[in-house]
Amino acid sequence: MEEKPVGFTAFDKKRESSSCVLVYVPEDRADVLARGKYVKVVSEYSGSSRVFVGRVVGGPFYETEGIDVSAAEVDVMVSNPSIPRVPQYRAVYEVEVLGEVEDPEKMVLKSTYTRPRPKSSVYLLSPRELSRYFKFAEGGMLLGHLIHYKGVKVFLDPDDINVLPRNIGVFGTVGSGKTNTAQVLIEEASRCGWAVVIVDVEGEYTFMDQPNDNDKLVRILESEYKLEPEGLKDFHVYVPVSSEYFVRRDSELFSISFYDLSLPLVLEIIRANEAQERRLSRVWRELEERVVRVVEPSDAFEEFIGVRREIQRGFTLRELVERVEAMADQAKNRRMTYDVVSYEAIASKLERLEATGIFDKDNVLSVNRLLKPGKVSVIDVSDASDIVKNIVISWLLLKIFRRKIRDPSAPKTLFIIEEAHTFVSRERVEVMRTTLDMLKTIARRGRKRWLSLCFISQQPGHLPTEIFELCNTRIVHRLMSEYNLKTLRETTAGVTREVWRTVPGLHVGEALLASPQLPHPVLLKIRPAKTMRVKLYEKVREPVPEALP
What we know:
The chain has 549 residues and is α/β, with parallel strands linked by helices. It has three domains: 7-125, Elongation Factor Tu (Ef-tu), domain 3; 141-256 and 358-541, 3-Layer(aba) Sandwich (Rossmann fold); 260-354, no CATH class. It contains 16 helices and 21 strands. Helix 8 runs antiparallel to helix 9 (337-354). The protein is elongated. The N and C termini lie far apart (69 Å).
């Protein structure tokens, strides 16, 4: 049976865009199309047919047929409840032309520099044609399905170096579905053999080794995706040794080695002024000469991030403080007032850093434990201060990247930073330049080493522009603030104004996905997570767990 067109292209009423056409749909089929649906347009050109693919971006608008819409009788018919029907009308949709079909079997499009002619037939694209067009390959990372198309499952390719390794941004207001999306990314990356490390600022991911227990979500998972709720198998939760409360009882305490932070980061963390930088750098180098045996880094980048080939022993924060205090005493004896003031200020700042209690304990976290295929490691910093959170993130990034440099065979790694705007913000760019430089460098050089960074934020407008430059795959949930939307509009290519207007009205779990894998951004419904999410915290005071082996 020959397929019946849903409508026909119309003559242009305005000349605003060369990439869009108007489509008339008769009254009885007005509900067949909707914003976000895909169509093919068959247009006759000198005896031959050309097929275009388009996406509905505007409408429906309604126009009367055979009578002027401004006529008095139209108003009477619409406003009078005793008149059962309205004049005959049609629905008008705006369709963005995405390209011309070059290979109908594989649904390969080519660029087009023309538009369908008036009276061209418009048909719905089938789910099979859509799957071929987007090249969604089963077996990849299953995110969900296209909006309007439950049969078209959306997959990210975990083996394409231009997708995850070019970093991810997940943005959306509170309650829009960001956490579920993060859980789906974690589940799928782990299933595909990636090592996953997430810095959890609220303790929401600490029970992902348990199955999802939400009956409604479980039904959706089973009916639409044929998946069963299940917890992650290789899953561990780590808590900074300075924490007083844990979300779960079997969390493992960890500390970090001070010497593994790079000198530029330490200077930034303590907010050293120029004079203090000079003096602390001198002390740092002196201590290195005394207690460290190293082979020089191979290039300036490795020197910047602190890659060291052979280390006999580093030095602790306490040793650095004592050496700075000794330098202050020497300056006093020599009556070098400026040196005394500077060294004492440095010592005071380092002691405040030492008071965080995170450094140089017996249970220093081994990054080798984190980087195992399929393993998910949650770093629960929900009870940590902001400075400890930032130190932990910086330390982990440096340690993981150093490992990836030394060992190219280390597993593909996804590093997730929750509430990224609290780690690095636009307002603090000038005082966090070293951290930003570190992020940019690791993000760019990490790509070839299969290290992917994922930034999650409800306030993307507060993130520095540099962060958006790093995130080539973006998942945008509902955002209401024009400030946040404006930031994303300015940095996300290929999204029309009409699509951006839908973002404030997205329902929970719906999102805009832009990725180098896709020919253009799409709207999708994220699938429910298979794992449990902690909603209510039951933080209890626990005895210190045994130290890490």
